[in-house]
Structures are given as C-alpha cells and as structure tokens.
Amino acid sequence: MRVTSYLTKAVCIGIGVAAFLSFWPDAVRAQGNLTLYCSPQIEWCQLVVAEFEKATGIKVAMTRKSSGETFAQVKAEASNPKGDVWWGGTGDPHLQAAEEGLTMEYKSPKLAELQDWATNQAKASKYRTVGIYAGALGFGYSTELLAKKKLPEPKCWKDLIKPEYKGEVQVADPNSSGTAYTMLATLVQMFGEQEAFEYMKKLHKNVNQYTKSGSAPIKAAAQGETAIGITFMHDIVTMVVRGSPIKVVSPCEGTGYEIGSMSVIKGARNLESAKKFYDWALTADAQSLGAKAEAYQVPSNKNATAPPQAPKFSEIKLINYDFAKYGSSAERKRLLEKWGKEVKALPQ
To answer: Where would I find the H helices in 100-207?
Structure first.
C-alpha cells in the first residue's frame, strides 16, 4: 500500500516535471558544452559565441587563433582532439585538414540555403568543410603617411615592389596566416610560379615586418606604423569605417579571394553540440551578425544580409582561384617551404 503510494507520487512528479519542461524555453532546456576554435577577428568570434549561447543554452569555450595557427593546433591534437568546431579563417587550411583526415564529414540540412561557391567548397572536401563567407584580397594604404612622405599612391601589385616603398609595406607570414598564404597562391596563379617568386623576393626588400595575423598589417597602417598593409579588403573596410585615413585598393592586375570555412573536428568530444553550432552558423540570422562586429565579408547564406560596406565582388577583378589545388596538403606544404627558403631567408 505504502509502496503503491510512493510509486503514484513518483509518477505524478515525473509527469509534472515533463509538463514543466515542455513549457520551458529551448535555450534553457538545451544543455551542453562546445569548444570552438575561431579564426576571424576576435570581436566577431565573441559575438558569435554570445549569440549561440543565447540561442541554445550551450556553453562555449572559445580560442581565437589565425588560420595557420589553428590548423597546426588541430594537427598537433589529432591523437587527442580538444576542439569541436573550427569556425572561420581561409579555406585552404580547412581543405588541407579535410584531406589529412583531421575533420569529419557532416551534411548540414542548411546546405540548400547556401551560395554555389560555398557548397562547391563542401563538395571539394567531401563535406568535411563548408563555405561560410567570402572575401577578396587587396591592400590598403595610409593617405596621411603617403602624403607626409611624398609617395605615389599604389594601384597595382607591381607598384609595391618599387624602390620608393622600401620599408613601407607590411604583410603576414603565410606559415601562420591564411591571408598571406592566399596572397602567395594568388601571385603564383596570376604571374606563374617563377615570376611570382621573383616578385616576392623584390617585395621582401620593401617589407618592414611579417606579422603573425593576416589583419595586423592594416591595423598597423591605421595606427600610422606602416604606409601599406596587404590583407583582405573587408579588413581594410573595417579600418575605414572606424574613421582611419585608409584607402582600399583592388589591385589592377586582378586578385584572389578566400572562402572562409567551417569544419567539425574529427573526434570532437561534444559532437551533438558541434552539429548544432554548425547548423546555426549557416543560418541567415547567424550570418547577418557580421556587420555588428564590423566584419564586412560576403555571407554564404543566400538570405543573409550583407553589410552595405562589404566589397562588391562584381566590381573586383577576381582570378579563377583554384581552391582544390592550392588547398591540397602537398601543394600548400611545397609552396610554404619554398617561400621560407627563397624569400623569407633573404636579407633585407
């Protein structure tokens, strides 16, 4: 009798809890954790984390590193993965990670909402990575510094190797920066490998610093620390929007571009949370957040709102960038080693 009474109470309590939870907001009911490796600017990473936590209740531990650094970390942790999702950063190292089996296949139900260039990235990687935004490569210069030093305004890639710009150019190291690797691969595709390396040897004489991060050169130009910074145009636009005396240049010869990508790390400890983040990050609402963080890339979701300040691809002379070739492990490794031996090792 007493046992029956206890069972009856327990069932009633269980029903009551279930009913209570059915009315409880999803964001509160959803429990879980996620370790996110983030490669775009820190402000965007922080905003994405805050909005995803608000939407799902999943707690996120985020680490921000450049694309090359994140790839190296994912590779180093392959036998004992610590990250769940790698969000953002240039697509080449994401493709290399996919080729080396460091990331896993996942076909999001949101794929149908994406631009062709984003789904092509997914197909090329056997669905181990996907495009989340795009950005064209270029350079920016400080109008104040150029006027002060009485230097001409550069308009083309080949202007940057002129003797008058000695010590006036800053660019990232392609070993740590996906932005700089995109430049390396772009020059090789535009000029041919031999001419591209001769160009980079001459550019080396004008470089005052190889930075770790791809966006650092234009930040330095905005602060008056260098006259010219080579980076993605959307990062240059950020400085312009903030009021810096910077002019954006789309090189006259043409230029390459990135497909910023996202991957689920193979062996992710929080796989269900990783898939939820992946799906959420492909939504139009999530991708429309960029402008709030002063991120001016072109979003991959067709229904996302691109910031009005974002560079317009239709107005830029883009090359037919070969993502499959230059994102491959062998080609990327070969070019980086060659750049280190033939360019960076040279005296300045």
So the answer is: 116-124, 143-148, 178-191, 193-206
